[in-house]
């Protein structure tokens, strides 16, 4: 088995991490038992570009028990947990090509190593693997999944341009993914990453959240819950209106840049915090990103204008501006929750990765029936995941009577 990781001797600690995650992922473990018994993926080759965390480790173990052969690389150069990578190699026969702190060349070299395994199904987080496959004209892939908003946007663009070569399940679009992972997962873990990097007090700080999608909603809500005075910057008028009605101050980046203490980007777009905005910021402003790629803050432009910089704490870089003010860039502008923290809590990834596991099985079973398009997760999978999670929490929900089911289908009865 080929692999390239930091250090195989980390494997025992990684196994403990996987055990801890498993205790908090009961829905996926329930699915794992079924898949281990049925072996629906026996002999299927899978290539996955995902954050190599303990939660991803549980997903990889699940797919291995379902019979799949797996090669795994990281979807972010700073998101790999090296002990988990070692445990997957040593104890679960997963070919891992990932370590924390990869440079750009190593990152793409690891993706290329996955494709040397000739995968039939690919799993991606952000779209880099899908794009790489299409750019190189690889033709043996029968289908794939996509974990996050950024990747789904890229795949939709490929579909609209008529270049998408295989069906992709947009796992991000499942209700049990984006309503929970994006909002509660990133909402909590982004702040966790900021606090691990800085150990600052949120209460009383002016916190600027750039973007009010599901990720931005979660971050804004939790910053407010910690006592932050939250400002939302949003270009979409409907989302801006919603943020306003939720009680947040809403303004543009030009004005917000002058008064913010902490900035968190969550847009999926480029240079939403520009060097012009940074030059407006007060001394001591903190810059962080919760979007998938490190393009939301103009890090390259910031480095060009910087008088000096130094690492003052792990994942915290102090940068002196031409006017003498200092700003603090967290995690090099990359995903702060995964670079400076551990990513989402296991409980919320239980939902996302249950969708991933079932979607891969669905893809394999439906490979001859699906055309090259982006598909939502089938509603029966979404509902199954929700029911499994509720059951694991000891929650019993209401059951409709036959009369109620029939009533909901009719159109004749009114007042």
From TrEMBL:
Pfam families noted in UniProt: AdoHcyase (PF05221), AdoHcyase_NAD (PF00670)
Residue intervals of the S-adenosyl-L-homocysteine hydrolase NAD binding domain: 182-343
Protein role: May play a key role in the regulation of the intracellular concentration of adenosylhomocysteine.
Ligand binding (substrate): 53, 125, 147, 177, 181
Cellular component terms (Gene Ontology): cytosol
Record keywords: Cytoplasm, Hydrolase, NAD, One-carbon metabolism
Name the UniProt record assigns to this protein: Adenosylhomocysteinase
Pathway where this protein functions: Amino-acid biosynthesis; L-homocysteine biosynthesis; L-homocysteine from S-adenosyl-L-homocysteine: step 1/1
InterPro entries: Adenosylhomocyst_ase-like_sf, Adenosylhomocysteinase-like, Ado_hCys_hydrolase_NAD-bd, NAD(P)-bd_dom_sf, S-Ado-L-homoCys_hydrolase_CS
UniProt source species: Metallosphaera cuprina (strain Ar-4)
Reaction catalysed by this enzyme: S-adenosyl-L-homocysteine + H2O = L-homocysteine + adenosine
One BP annotation, GO: S-adenosylmethionine cycle
UniProt similarity note: Belongs to the adenosylhomocysteinase family.
Keyword Protease: no
Binding-site residues, NAD(+): 148-150, 182, 211-218, 234, 269, 290-292, 337, 344
EC number: 3.13.2.1
Top EC class of this enzyme: hydrolase
Gene Ontology molecular function: adenosylhomocysteinase activity
Cofactor: NAD(+)
The gene coding this protein: ahcY
Free-text remark on how the cofactor is bound: Binds 1 NAD(+) per subunit.
